[in-house]
Amino acid sequence: MKLQLLDAIGEITEARTAAGLWQQGQGCSLTGLSGASKTVFLAALDRLLPEQGSLVFLLSGRDDIREYRRTLNCFYSDLLMQELYPVDLPLVQADSRNREIQAGRVAAMRILQGEERGIVFVTAEALLQKLPIPQKVLGSGVVVTLGQQLEQQELLERLIELGYERTTQVDAIGQFCLRGDILDIFPINSQYPARIEWFDDTIDAMRSFDLDNQRSIESLSAVKIVPLQIESGEDFSASVFDYLSASTRLVVDEPSRLFELLQKLYTESSGYADELWSPAELEGFCAQKRAWVVAALGHSRLQLFKDINVPVRSVAPYNRNLELLTGDLQGWLADGQVPVVMMSSDIKARGLADSLQSRNLNAAFVKEGALLRPGRITVISGELTAGFRFWNENWLLLTENDIFGMQKKRRLHTKNSGAQLQYFSEIKAGDYVVHSVHGIGRYIGVENVLVDGVHRDYLLLAYAGDDKLYVPVEQVGMLHKYVGNEGQAPRLSKMGGADWKRVQSKARAAITELAEELLRLYAQRKIVPGHAFAEDTEWQRDFEERFPYEETPDQLKAIAEIKADMEKPEPMDRLLCGDVGYGKTEVAIRAAFKAVMDGKQVAVMVPTTVLAQQHFMTFKERMQPFGVKVEMVSRFCTPREQKRILNDLENGQVDVLIGTHRLLQQDVLFPDLGLLVIDEEQRFGVAQKEKIKRWKTGVDVLTLSATPIPRTLHLALVNGRDMSVIESPPEERLPVETYVAEYNPGMIKEALEREMRRGGRIYYVHNRVLGLENIAADLRSLVPGINIRIAHGQMSEDMLEDAMIAFYEGSCDVLLSTSIIENGLDVPLANTIIIDGAENFGLSQLYQMRGRVGRSSRLAYAYFVYKRNRALSEVAEKRLQAIRDFTELGAGFKIAMRDLEIRGAGNLLGAQQHGHIAGVGFAAYCDMLERTIRKLKDGVEDGIPEPDPVLEISVDGYIPDDYIADPRYKLELYRRFAGLDYGEKDDLLDEIIDRFGEPPEEVEVLWRVACLRALCRLLHIRGISVKPGELRITFAENAAIDPTALMQLISEQQQYMNFKSGVQAQLIFRTVKLKTDSLTWLEKNLPRLAFD
After folding, report:
1. Which of the four pLDDT bands, split at 50, 70 and 90, describes residue 921?
2. Computed over its alpha carbons, how large is the radius of gyration of the chain?
3. Which CATH number fits domain 142-225: 3.30.2060.10, 3.40.50.720, 3.30.420.40, 3.90.1150.10?
4. What global pTM score does this model have?
5. CA separation for the pair 698, 318 (Å, rounded)
6. Which fold has domain 2-135+232-309?
């Protein structure tokens, strides 16, 4: 139906004229168009042309991209829409790894040159910059084809030349790794990574694979690999116009505004004139191209194009006045007009058609058939932002936005969160590990040992007193990587287990105490009666519809969980965790509105006055149209105002009260408190937390936290506390361009001036209060006239908040502060942060501070600066490497896990548990906590898990170095073998072949033994022993054996075997009589003993 709308516009005289000119090789100037009508008209022109081509839009800024993208998505949802991101002008000694930006540039260049059809948006900033000549980007890569003769080393050297990074496993764009005859690579121009397999020097097979599970997706006949990063130089002599193919539809949007901005940016960047095109040059290039130049009111630029005035006008908004809408629709029908109404979904379209029919209007929801039918109101689904009508046509378009107000914006930026980090579970030579029996040791590596004529791999551990322990690889599950205190090597345990048992015993006692406290609070909430809120009202649904963005799946899940809790008769106590700026506030607003709709009051408690002010404005803006009274108590209120607000609160006239710990004072009285929302509870003091605890009794509580929680701890705590997690990124959010560099005044000056040029603001963080004034003086000498405010924790609260409010309101350019800005301010126009002395901050701190920028659709920059000529410690180097590497959206969990390794786990559960986490290691601690909570909660003694089956079978089963050389991959596979589920045995073998190639006999034997162990686990077989002349199977007391099948097996083999009954029954066979080797016989006969 939406395409019929384009066809209807294509019938308009002006559209046919413009399309005719294009086919004659001429562009035109289109005036009168604005908003959605502009984009829809251009889409109609594109549809009129016989030859398919890409669309390229030259726009002033990213706000224009957002508007175009939302409308184009209605008609081109199957096409890639890509911005040509501008690049930074040269920055001295800065190292950035933002491959998403680089990949976007390459994707845009491919579309520009016609290699694939798509839509490219080019802002003024990107248009100015000189580009590499097209051949350098798209012609200088490598194409690998099936059956091609290509030496492996030759390709590896070429990939390094192209800027690709060699790693041990491909888990990000721009990486490659080699395993024997298999090369994995993620080309910057591809949606999926590729797996290339050799036979001798011939490309034998190629396939794409999934980054999350490393499994193949589909076969490929060719893989194109374009350069990852192209250095500037003499080949940077092209403009965007040099890339355009003959079929490309070029659109120049509002040229007067565009060229005025180009001139401004060019003047401000005069120091880099050699790397930029002048606006005059760009105007000349543009005049030589066939283009559609679009301007609402005409323009004085690009006069070479023929002018076509399109007679179109917008429609007046109805603001939910259905009576006025009904009258207009009746009038239009009477005049012979055909109204078309577009709603954002089929459900809404059907609902509106029914509503109009109930008002005696001829309306129909149409998915097929004619769009324009005289005498009928046609209702369709689609996501245009505004309606319009052409003066000389007998039809008009209305949208949901015209009738009901703001329509939701689609979250157009989607990002696969990817596989969770392997770092925490990976064990490398030299790491400290925890053995479940012997305690903390140092991992030396994998050693192949010949025992009784059989080669086997063992994990070698070093313990106190130079003792060594050889751990069979099938027992790898008994090892965990040790995570404890930052910079402190743990004390090695003594072998034998007595030393380790003492440490475990102390930890277990503390864990039991913690678990009992968690569960006591949990149980208390279940006993104390709470308020069961009613199900959602029509107002609630209406309120939520007005949220201007489409909710992420995680947001919807969290909202559903919170509402379900609120509708139960016991008090809610739920923790909502989410990455920085991921939409936790909207979830809290909906919970608050639900409480108010049920006649209850809401308290929102935040740690700072600035946050209180921000929440107050957000809550008020969302709730005021529904008559909800939102107030705030803070130092911004005069004593008289506070007295009035608290009096209204006590009289039940205030629905939502927002404030800091001021809410805990005795004069704050809620007659009917139903919900308490606490933002960043960990930032309140001990005394304040005690008061909050008393508040919680009988009241629903929702706690918000931006601190990423490691998943293992989440799983351990989930039985003791209700928790929701938001991990989906917000809409149209770009990853922050991240640089790690030595301090350089030129780089700082450029970063400050660039942000100020675009009207933005800058955070400058330095964590020594004494140095702030000197830094302020340095910055003023670098950029004369810059307006700087200083903020740190030693200032009075009034002065601190005055500085923050000044920054928030835009009366200063730079907020120079300590890490006090780590949590709190949400300033969309602040899109550059410079962290001085970055080596002195913790990784989570660095991540949280980087999260202060990039909270709008603008590209943001973060500079992590360390002292010149200073050798970084290993810990500091790891932190800076991690913050540089993890630039993608939603990296909070990855950062949390890496920080756990670097920093240790001490603060996750408070100081009381710190020593015990350090004593046993984080993984063992979480395991003990989870078991203790489960035991106390369910009343079931978890006890010692059933021991793994012991298989004593003398076979050569190991992973040879010439099959897998990397010890981390070996260890990963040994873990997979040790924990194999019998039902997944074939999948594992397929994955091994897919990732590493056909396995040698030793690996195949290893897999067969692992399958046998998995089957024994399933049947509760305690062990299998194969000795010369004898095969012995020992059953556990609770063996899950089919007795009929067992009797059948015994009857078949009775002359060659003995059966011993008892607590652990045994079958003993004389192997000399078996017709095959023991392993094959077991593979054939053991599955028979399972129940069908």
Report:
1. confident
2. 34
3. 3.30.2060.10
4. 0.64
5. 44
6. Rossmann fold (3.40.50)
